Amino acid sequence: MKRPRKKILLTTVVVLLISAFLASTVYAAWVDKNIKAHYRNIKINHNGKPVNIEKGYEPFIIHVNGDSKKPATFVPVRALAEILGKEVKWDQKTYTVDVIDKEEKPDQEIANLMIQLISKENEIKDLNNKISELEAKLAEAEKDKVSKRDLENTENYLRKNYDYYKNIDFDIRLYESKNGIEVSIIVDLDRDYSRWNSLRDRDIEDYIEDIVKEIQYDFKDAKVSGYIEDKRTRDKLVDFYTDTRNRVVTSIKGSSGYIRDLDDMEDYLNNEFGRYEKIDFYIKLSGSKSSVRVEIEVNETDWKNLSVKEQDYYLEGIYDAIVREFSKAEVYGYIDDYRTGKALNDFEFDSNGKLKVW
What we know:
Layout: H1 5-29, E1 37-38, E2 45-46, E3 49-50, E4 60-63, E5 71-74, H2 77-83, E6 86-91, E7 96-101, H3 108-144, H4 148-161, E8 164-165, E9 168-177, E10 180-187, H5 189-198, H6 201-218, E11 224-230, E12 236-242, E13 248-252, H7 262-273, E14 275-276, E15 279-280, E16 282-287, E17 291-298, H8 300-305, H9 308-325, E18 330-337, E19 343-349, E20 355-357
Parallel strand pairs: 10-11, 17-18
Antiparallel strand pairs: 1-4, 2-3, 4-5, 6-7, 8-9, 9-10, 11-12, 12-13, 14-15, 16-17, 18-19, 19-20
């Protein structure tokens, strides 16, 4: 039995369509074309700088569809991507080129080196700061340091130039102390008692200040302290030191225990109180150590030109000097005009040291 003609024809058409479809599919995947490429030493710059192209990947020119008026420059994808800093991946299964942006990651080794560099720079900075601190401390120590040789030189200079003052012999020694320089000045009161006793406080202060200035000339701003001492008894007659303002502070121990009687006290008072506010006074003492009578002679006009406060201050200074040596003494007296003998005032101090003048 024969098949119908229409059925055979339909089968043929279907087969032809499938064949045509398969043929078109293969053509889309694989197409061979002959193209004419022109290599003309094409150069590529990146940001104005020439780029080296690996041999075999050089750019070339073709004419689209063979039309010389439509030139196009071709560069291999991988070569161009690397120039632009991209990553290229090729998928063999799908025949796909994937151009990927590279992540901007700093080189780890460079990063580690940078961290180490910063750390070392900080260490160097710390070391430089410590060096500066140590140099400052060293400079301060050197400034305050007193060498034995320098101290001996200064001592020799003082012994040569200040060992004799107001007809009194002094023995001067210098020592390095914890706080600076200590000065020991020795006087022999068994030999120079009367001359020492005749010195005014201002004379002693001037003498000490001159010595301190000489020391600080050699040892700038050095702290100086010291004393004047009797050779035999080792009694301290004077203490002195430089204060925070570099001023010399002197403490004179009255007559330093060497006023033995009223005659010694009289000499002392005339040295210390024989001139006051440019006025001359003459002082005589009588009585005993327990009852001291004070006679003061002065020009009447000069005395009356002093204010009451100045007169009281002068008399109180005499009283303080007397009771410093004779602590239980009663002190009283009078003031006369030295030319006429006229009585100007009488005065006395009570047991509490309060002055009464009439």
